[in-house]
Write a structure and sequence with these properties.
The complex is a heterodimer. Chain A is α+β, with helices and mostly antiparallel strands. Chain A has 2 domains: 124 residues, GOLD domain (Jelly Rolls), CATH 2.60.120; 37 residues. Chain A contains 2 helices and 9 strands, in the order βββββββββαα. In chain A, the strands form 2 sheets. In chain A, strands 1, 3, 4, 7 and 9 form a 5-stranded antiparallel beta sheet that branches. In chain A, strands 2-8-5-6 form a 4-stranded antiparallel beta sheet, with no helix packed on it. The longest helix of chain A has 72 residues. The radius of gyration of chain A is 30 Å and the shape is elongated. Chain B is α+β, with helices and mostly antiparallel strands. In chain B, strands 1-8-3-6 form a 4-stranded antiparallel beta sheet. The longest helix of chain B has 69 residues. Chain B contains 3 helices and 8 strands, in the order αββββββββαα. Classes of the chains: A alpha+beta, B alpha+beta. At the A-B interface, β1, β2, β9, α1 and α2 of A face α1, β1, β2, β8 and α2 of B. Chain A: Belongs to the EMP24/GP25L family. Chain A: It is a single-pass type I membrane protein. Chain A: Keywords: Endoplasmic reticulum, Membrane, Signal, Transmembrane, Transmembrane helix. Chain A: Its main location: endoplasmic reticulum.
């Protein structure tokens, strides 16, 4: 767990994962709390936990659990799109002491199929290549799913561009028509007005 | 995020994996950076490790962000303002915690979505060559080359996905702007034209007596 960042005590930090459907996402985290007396991060803080919330692209919550200071969570996406993974500590310290913060270590793996190390040790040479091939096939499936998702998104992109194009054309025509008709109305109205006022 | 770490075979496999896995790590995170905010990430790196930091802004405003990479002694290794995309490779000159920050402090109201990929060390080899008794069989070398090719496919796919997301975000922005500005213009046009006529009429009706005297 190498990469870490800082967060406020009650602050919610979210990361976005844009993934295709049927993809397994596994996350590992570790949270440490700042001790003002020691001016350092404690190795473990009893009672400190993290709420992990995963929201799917259509807004429904896929995962919402309270884990301890260190934990692993995973979920499989049923929809393709932006899944939002949020972390918030369960710290109940309302009086936020100046300088209190949390250090969150994070490691998230998307779509990786993990090799069972002990199975490799037990099997012989032939099966080792077998296992490698299975892993490669899993990777290729992941690439294929990503490509399908990419195709969906490109279609949406193309629709948006075409909609913009027709919007521009349509609104330009409407504005020209408004301009012409309002211009005609203006002249007619003024002429009638001046005639009625006996100025013309 | 993708972690590229693979298992090894044989009794020494575990040891090799442990030694190599400690040296190689890749973290990629996509996060939202609110306006006037700065987000920093830290990583402990061993001296001599070759690291690469790559980032790209996916949505928001002018699609740019400030990035800054500092070494353990506070020395600035990389600093760029308002960059849309960049890739920076460096070799860690000392042990310690390296820090990189993304800042959106120059922006007043646009949130930015930033993606970064921080690769530490080289990826471990698929099949370790240190403890081999014989040369690699054809199957094994085929596996290795397929693995390398797949790694670069996944890498290119990620880049493509990001570019497409950025393009789509711009297109959607454009679409919304066109719709709102067109409606706004049409309304302004109507209001101003009708307003002009009534204003003119009101100018004449107030000074009625003065105008008739001038006319006759």
């Amino acid at each position: 767990l190498a990469l870490y960042f800082h967060s406020g005590e009650r602050e919610e930090k979210c990361i976005i994962e844009d993934i295709p459907t049927d993809t397994l996402v596994v996350g590992n985290y570790k949270v440490q709390s700042w001790d003002i007396h020691k001016h350092g991060f404690l190795e473990s803080a009893p009672g400190l936990g993290m709420f992990v919330t995963v929201t799917s692209p259509n807004g429904e919550v896929v995962l919402s659990k309270l884990y301890g200071p260190q934990g692993t969570f995973s979920f499989t996406s049923h929809l393709s799109g932006e899944h939002i993974i949020c972390f918030q500590s369960n710290s109940t310290r309302f009086a936020v002491i100046a300088g209190s913060k949390l250090r969150i270590h994070l490691d998230i793996r998307v779509g990786e199929h993990f090799l069972d190390e002990s199975a490799i040790q037990a099997k012989d040479k032939v099966n080792e290549v077998n296992v490698r091939l299975e892993h490669l096939i899993e990777q290729i499936h992941h690439v294929t799913r990503e490509q399908d998702y990419e195709r969906e998104r490109e279609e949406k992109f193309r629709k948006t561009s075409e909609e913009t194009n027709s919007n521009i054309l349509w609104w330009a025509i409407v504005q020209t028509l408004i301009l012409i008709s309002v211009g005609i109305w203006q002249i007619k109205s003024l002429r009638d007005f001046f005639i009625s006022k006996k100025l013309v | 995020m993708l972690l590229r770490g693979y298992g090894t075979a044989g009794p020494w496999g575990w040891l090799t994996l442990l030694l190599v896995a400690c040296a190689a790590w890749a973290s990629e995170i996509t996060f939202e950076l609110p306006d006037n905010a700065k987000q920093c990430f830290y990583e402990e790196i061993v001296q001599g490790t070759k690291c690469t930091l790559e980032f790209q802004v996916i949505t928001g405003g002018h699609y740019d962000v400030d990035c800054r990479l500092e070494g353990p002694d506070g020395s600035v290794l990389y600093k760029e303002m308002k960059k849309q995309y960049d890739s920076f490779t460096f070799t860690a000159s000392r042990n310690g915690t390296y820090k990189f920050c993304f800042s959106n402090e120059f922006s007043t109201f646009t949130h930015k979505t930033v993606y970064f990929d921080f690769q530490v060390g080289e990826d471990p080899p698929l099949l370790p060559s240190e403890n081999r008794a014989t040369a690699l069989t054809q199957m094994e070398s085929a596996c290795i080359s397929i693995h390398e090719a797949l790694k670069s496919v996944i890498d290119y796919q990620t880049h493509f996905r990001l570019r497409e997301a950025q393009g789509r975000s711009r297109a959607e922005d454009l679409n919304t702007r066109v719709a709102y500005w067109s409606i706004g213009e049409a309304i302004i046009l109507l209001v101003v034209s009708i307003g002009q006529v009534f204003l003119l009429k009101s100018l004449f009706s107030d000074k009625r007596t003065t105008t008739t005297r001038v006319a006759s």
